[in-house]
Amino acid sequence: MTFVEQMDFLWSSFVALDWKMVVMWVIGGTLIYLAIKKEMEPTLLLPLGFGTIMVNLPWSGAIGPEGPLSVLFNAGIANELFPLILFIGIGAMIDFGPVLSNPKLMLFGAAAQFGIFFTMCVASMFFPLNDAAAIGIIGAADGPTAISVAIKLGSKYLPAIMVAAYSYMALVPIIQPPVIKLLTTKKERMIRMPYRPGNVSKATKILFPIVITLVAGMVAPASIALVGFLMFGNLIRECGVLNSLSETAQKVLANLVTIFLGLTIASQMVADKFLVPETLLILGLGLFAFVFDTAGGVLFAKFLNLFLKEKLNPMIGAAGISAFPMSGRVVHKMGLEEDPQNHLLMQSIGVNVSGQIASVIAGGMILNFFM
What we know:
It is a single chain. The protein is an all-alpha fold. 71% of the residues lie in helices and 0% in strands. The protein has helices spanning 3-16, 19-36, 42-55, 68-76, 81-93, 97-101, 106-111, 114-123, 129-136, 143-152, 158-170, 172-183, 186-189, 202-219, 224-238, 243-266, 271-274, 277-305, 326-338, 345-370. Helix 3 (42-55) runs parallel beside helix 16 (243-266). The radius of gyration is 22 Å and the shape is globular. The termini are far apart.
């Protein structure tokens, strides 16, 4: 290419650039800033932000029939492979011991999914039913489940759903405390819950992921891939003979897949698809779902307290969302702020773990209803 031809090409690229692409650069830059400066989900937001800039350049070679990001999307997202592999890593991170020693904590995980179905009903007033169902699952604060459900239901709003799900996961420490404080009194937040660990045998921990997979498969067959991969990761952790593989799944595998996930989702964040009014509405509905999931867990704990002699701290109900372990830590921190001797970490993490299972099953139930 001669110098004159290069100048012509540069000029044509400049002419092809429009304001929407520039806006997407700003969005990409904001995601990078949040990842680096605020350390908000950096393994996801950094590749997502950089990928957003890559795909919003005139005639970008990153997308298209032979573009590497489009190829990766078809190979790992369109067929749900990346989210499912990520579930193996998440399962390997989770210790179900607190739940197994106190099974009633699983009730809070179920109660905290209320916002999913409520938001789905609200979203159905603005979107087709399949899209509304995919938007509702944002409330689970479980990125891989949101992606899998949106793909299976054929939602054309996958980028917005994915950005909303992971953004609100990262914003747990900002969003949840005001909701919790609004729904509880200082006296309720100071309720102490002594932790009484039960003796959970190794055999129980090994059987648990197998039993959960069987039960989920019978109740919601469409959830079997989501639940199965999550439980398989946990089985690797608990079996005791694959320690090096468990460590690899928790760190190397989970981080690597998350990076690919961010880059490939970015292939769909083209300005013409993303900068539409529906995106803002989805972000708003996602926040709505997140708030109502938090509220559902807290109110359920308050309801149980009407019948219990030994009162529960209603804040633990908020940890029933699937943002593991962030939500559990937020509740623990809030308990210490009210009373430096009020340690709620084990109870809140137990609820948080149950929320992970409940959100995956909720996603499977939605798929059963609408596929």
